[in-house]
Amino acid sequence: MDHMSNHPAPEDLAEGSEDQPSVEERRALIERVAASEQFSRSARLRDFLLYVGRKSLKEGCPEIHEQEIGAKVFGRSAAYDRSQDNIVRVNATELRKRIESYFESGGANEPLILDIPRGSYKPVFHRRLPESPYRPAASLEEFPPAAASRDAESRGRKRSSRLRQLFWPVASLLLAVACAALFQQNRTMRKSLHPWEGKPAVGAFWADFLRNNQQTDIVLPDDAASVIEDITHRPTSLEAYLSRDYMRQIQSSGMSADQKADLVEIFNHNLVTFGAVRAAQQIMAEIPPSYSRYLTLTRYYTADEIKRNNVVLVGGKKSVPWDHLFDDKINFVTDFNDEPELQFVRNRNPKAGEQAIYAVPQEPNSLVGYGAIAYLPNPSGTGNAIILAGTDSDATNAAAEFLTSEDQMEKFQAMLHTSRFPYFEVLLKTNRLSGTSFSSKLLAYRTYPDLH
User: Fold this and answer.
1) d(CA 170, CA 247)
2) 347: how many CB neighbours lie within 10 A of its CB?
3) Which CATH number is 200-222+272-451 given?
4) Residues spanned by CATH 3.30.379 within the chain?
5) Is the pTM for the entire model greater than 0.70?
6) Residue 363 DSSP symbol
7) Tens digits of per-residue pLDDT, 261-281?
8) Helix axes 393-404, 406-416, angle to 10 degrees
9) Distance CA 1, CA 443 (A)
C-alpha cells in the first residue's frame, strides 16, 4: 500500500518503545475502520475485521489462524477442510483492499494506521510519519534575461496577437464540450439516483420490494456446483452443499483419481455465466444508492443473511442450492433430466390450458428457453425474496429483464387489476439470438396476496 512508505519499521514499535500505540488507541482505530463507509454494506467483512482486530489487542496474542476465523466468523465447523473451502482467504483479500481504501480516503489523516500483512491474519499497527512537502525545482526559464532583442520582442507581439485571435474560438469549443460532458454526467447521476423515473409500474414493484429499507443481497450462482452435478449425476441438497459433504462423497466414491482431481479443480474455481452477471447488473441498477446493496456468490452466502435481508437469488437450484428453502412454496420449478439430457420447467399444479412440463426443444442451437420468477417472503418472513431461474443463463437474464421492463411490468400489472403487486410467480417463454434475449412471452402466473 502506498501509504506504507512512511511507516516506521515494525521493530521500531516493539514493546516498551515510546512510539508503541496503546491498547485503547488500537481499539479505537479498529472501531473507526469497522464503522467506515468501506464496511457499511458488508457485515461479514466488518465481523472479520472486528474479530481479528480485537483478538490482536490481547497481550501476547499469537498468530490468528485461518481455521479459527472460518469457525468463529464464517460459521464453519471447527474441523472443516480448508483445502476444499477457501472462504477465509477470499474474504481476507477483500478485507485488505477495504482497509487500504479507508486509509486512502476517510482515514487519510489517521495518525495511527493498521494493515493485515499477506500470509497472516493478525493486524499490525504503525505510526504515520508526516510527509515531507515537495516543491519542484524552478527551471532556468523562470528567470529570463533582463533584456531581449528587438526582433524577439516583435516576434513575441505577433505571436501574442495570434494567440488572442485563437483564444475565444478554442475557449468556446472547450466550454461546449464541458457543458455536454456535465449534461451527460447529470443524466447518468439522475438515472442512478432515480432509476424508476418515468417507469411507474417498475417503480411500484421495486418500492414495495424495498419497503422495509433492509439490505438487499444479490446472490450469483455457483456454476461449478452445477457442472459437478452434471458430471456426477448426483443432485446436491442444501445441507450437503453447505457442509461440502458432496465433495467428500466424491473423494470416497469409486471414481478414478484423475476424475476426482478434475472435479476438485472445477470446485476450486468460481464459475459464473455471463447471463447471470447481466441479470445481476440489471437488478442492481433498479436499487437506488440510498438502499444498501451487497453482491456475493452462492458459496459465500449464509443462512443468517438470507433470513435477515432481502435477497435476489440468480439461478436455479443446481447452481443456487439456497432455492431449496422455497421448495414447498414454488409452483414453477426449473429442473433437469440426465437421461436424456433435458432442461425443463415443471408446472406442479397446471391450470386449464397450461402444460405440466415446459421442455426446451432438443434440436441443436434451439432458440427457445423458459424462465421463471418467484417473488415471495424471505424464509423468516422479515424481508422479501426474488428467485430468477431459467433453463439456461439467457432465460435467467430474460427473467431479470421482465422485472426491469416498464412495458412488461405495466402489462402484468394490468392483468392483476391492482396498483400494488402481490407476491407472485411468472413463467416466461424466451427467444434468443447469439446469446441475447430479444423477446419473452408470459405463459402463466400465480399470485399469493395472502402472504402479505
Assistant:
1) 66
2) 20
3) 3.30.379
4) 200-222+272-451
5) no
6) S
7) 999 999 888 889 889 999 999
8) 70
9) 54
